[in-house]
Amino acid sequence: MFNNQGKTLVLSVIILLLVAILLAVTNPDRESHYQTFKNKLTQKDAITNVLNLGMLAVNPLSYHTVAVVSYTRYNDKIATIGIMGYVWVDEKVFK
Predict the structure, then answer these.
(1) Which contiguous run of DSSP H or E holds residue 62?
(2) CA–CA distance, 77 with 79 (Å, rounded to integer)
């Protein structure tokens, strides 16, 4: 029914769909982003921790997802990026 090119195309599409499903299923949720960001905020001294947590309460993170990757914004900057269950925090947000 299919020639070799057709089989290769079908196999490539199936693999691409499986990878997309894996990325979507392991995409970190809003709470993972919030906790990772909050943990990074509280790595300073006690007074700075209180001030940072107060700033986070006044200006909360906004969570966005694009099915296979998610991110949050804080003060109009991308604060965290999440993919495959891992959340990366951009240090530039704290400066």
Answers:
(1) strand 62-65
(2) 6
Q: What is the mean pLDDT of the chain?
A: 88
71 and 64 Cβ atoms separated by less than 8 Å = yes
> Cβ(61)–Cβ(34) under 8 Å?
yes
Q: How far apart are CA 57 and CA 40, in angstroms?
A: 15
Neighbours of 47 (CB within 10 A): 8
Q: Which amino acid is at 7?
A: K
Domains belonging to the chain, first-starting first, are 4-94 (3.10.450)
pLDDT digits (tens, 9 = 90+) for 33-77: 999 998 888 777 778 778 878 888 888 889 999 989 999 998 889
Question: Which pLDDT score is estimated for 1?
Answer: 56
Query: What whole-number distance in Å separates Cα of residue 73 and Cα of residue 61?
Result: 6
Nearest residue to 28 via CA among 71, 58, 60: 71
- Widest CA span in the chain: 70
